[in-house]
Amino acid sequence: MHRVITPPELAELIRCALPDAEVDAVDRTGTRDHYNLRVVSKGFAGMNPLDQHRLVYRALQLALSDGRLHAVEIKTELPVRG
């Protein structure tokens, strides 16, 4: 049986590492295992883009290792000050 992950599950994993994160997940193939992610968090402050991505990948490690998530494209941002 092919295991999959939903956008809310992805957001939950990311919020374990970045509690304030706003997560937008788009299933790019319709198979619920390849996603484009946009993650906005104050937790990225002071980090370079590579370290921001590493943080998100670490948060997703379980889903990547157990096969629910096969591929992910990540865009990270700091919140816009208003």
Strand content: 15-25%
Number of structural domains: 1
Terminal Cα span:
46 Å
Overall mean pLDDT: 95
**Total number of beta strands:** 3
Largest beta sheet: strand ordering: 1-2-3
Q: What characteristic shape results from the CA principal axes?
A: globular
Q: What percent of the residues sit in helical stretches (DSSP H or I)? A: 25-40%
Say what the CATH topology is: GMP Synthetase, Chain A, domain 3
CATH-defined architecture: 2-Layer Sandwich
Question: Ranges with pLDDT <50 over ≥5 residues?
Answer: none
CATH top level class name: Alpha Beta
Structural overview:
- This protein has about 80 residues and is of the alpha+beta class.
- The protein has one domain: 2-Layer Sandwich (GMP Synthetase, Chain A, domain 3).
- The protein is built from 3 helices and 3 strands.
- A 3-stranded mixed beta sheet has the order 1-2-3.
- Strand 1 and strand 2 form a beta hairpin.
- The protein is globular, with a radius of gyration of 12 Å.
- The model has no long low-confidence stretch (mean pLDDT about 95).
Draw up the topology in text.
Elements: H1 7-17, E1 22-27, E2 34-40, H2 49-59, H3 61-65, E3 71-77
Parallel strand pairs: 2-3
Antiparallel strand pairs: 1-2
Provide a quick synopsis of the model.
With 82 residues, this protein is of the alpha+beta class. The chain contains three helices and three strands; from the N terminus they run αββααβ.
Name a few traits of the molecule.
alpha+beta; GMP Synthetase, Chain A, domain 3; single chain; 82 residues; 3 helices; three-stranded mixed beta sheet
